[in-house]
Write a structure and sequence with these properties.
Distance between the termini: 25 Å
Strand content: 15-25%
Structural class: alpha+beta
């Protein structure tokens, strides 16, 4: 039988693709509550409780008070005075993540980890002969529960964009299935701020343009989106219609991981800038640890009050796996730019030249196509 001319159908969807997005529920906090029964049922934050500490993760009990990851610890304590802080144990989180990834591998070789606690799986090929992508997702969730004592939520759909949205729909410990016929309708009813890739800045810009929901976005023609969002317009145009062409890329490694911060008032003194960079490192290192990667190159980004931006980088002969070393390199790069003649409005620090301990995987032989 001849191969089709294009892998896409007339709507832009990949024919027959079955994607699962698995997202662990409050992963770091849930591991801590699992390992210490005294913490169960209590509002918990993983992170530092000191004045410049940052919340790396919050339990669902803490989230009811508005505590969120990346929130300054002092703000979290204001929202929830009874909040319990525990220091992160990234070695433990990585070990549990590998245990979960081994469960994924029983069902597919096409696994794209996004971080320690979430991943895309392409289960178009029914390796376990379970009959449907939904059955596979439920089997994975049950295995995670029985073998790790943790819960996971899953989204099952025909592309990555919708699967990721769906996994958040029935959290915690839930599953959501969106078949191809319902994809565009599902997207239309969601706020655009939930779309992957639409951050706070883009969401605010969309709000000024009257774009609040997926339907609002779909109502805007492509040329309108191109005028306001440039090269990002094609992605938004497809997303609003439930279209996403991206394949699951096995063992994908990000090019860089880091963080940056824009200040309310420009900074110019050495101690103020060094303190600000330490807070940037807190956020960046949380993301680096969550990603489970190591890198050799540290890059400092510095934007002056006149919007002139410079970057300075340094590469080590070995992977940087320690926050203290990451901070030390960043501070040294910063010191080389001091004193500054103009105030600094933004500082950023990233790690690149990344690698992980995961081995690459080959796609399995083609087997029977399965329904959602």
């Amino acid at each position: 039988m001849p191969a089709p001319l294009s892998p896409f159908d007339e709507t832009g969807r990949l024919d027959g693709r079955k994607i699962i997005h698995v997202d662990m529920d409050a992963f770091y906090a849930s591991v801590e509550q699992r390992d210490d029964p005294a913490l169960r049922g209590r509002p918990l934050a993983v992170g530092g409780s000191r004045a410049r500490g940052v919340v790396a993760a919050a339990s669902y009990e803490a989230r009811t008070f508005g505590v969120r990851s990346a929130m300054p610890s002092v703000t979290a304590l204001r929202k929830c005075p009874d909040l319990v802080f525990v220091p992160p144990r990234f070695d433990v989180y990585r070990e549990v993540s590998q245990q979960i990834r081994a469960i994924f591998a029983r069902y597919t070789d096409l696994i794209e980890p996004l971080s320690l606690d979430e991943a895309y799986l392409d289960v178009t090929e029914d390796q376990a002969a379970l009959g449907s992508a939904t059955a596979i997702a439920n089997a994975i969730r049950e295995a995670i529960r029985s073998e790790t004592g943790l819960t996971a939520s899953a989204g099952v759909s025909y592309n990555k964009f919708i699967a990721k949205l769906a996994s958040d729909q029935n959290k915690p410990d839930g599953i959501c299935i969106i078949p191809p016929a319902h994809g565009a309708t599902f997207v239309a009813g969601l706020p655009v701020k939930r779309f992957h890739g639409v951050g706070p800045v883009t969401a605010r810009k969309m709000e000024t343009l009257g774009i609040l929901t997926g339907q609002d976005l779909r109502d805007r023609p492509l040329d309108f989106l191109q005028r306001h969002f440039g090269s990002y317009a094609d992605y938004l145009y497809g997303a609003a219609r439930g279209i996403d062409h991206r394949p699951v890329r096995a063992h994908r490694i990000a090019k860089s991981v880091g963080a940056e911060r824009t200040f309310e008032s420009d900074l110019s003194d050495r101690e103020g800038l060094r303190s600000a960079l330490e807070r940037v490192v807190d956020a960046a290192w949380t993301r680096i640890e969550r990603s489970g990667v190591a890198g050799r190159t540290v890059t400092l980004k510095l934007r002056h009050s006149d919007f002139r931006t410079i970057t300075r980088a340094r590469s080590a002969h070995h992977p940087i796996r320690d926050r203290a070393e990451f901070l030390a390199v960043g501070l040294d790069l910063l010191d080389q730019q001091l004193p500054v003649t103009l105030g600094v409005r933004l500082l950023g620090l990233t790690l690149s030249g990344l690698s992980s301990d995961d081995d690459g995987a080959q796609s399995a032989p083609t087997q029977a196509e399965l329904p959602l």
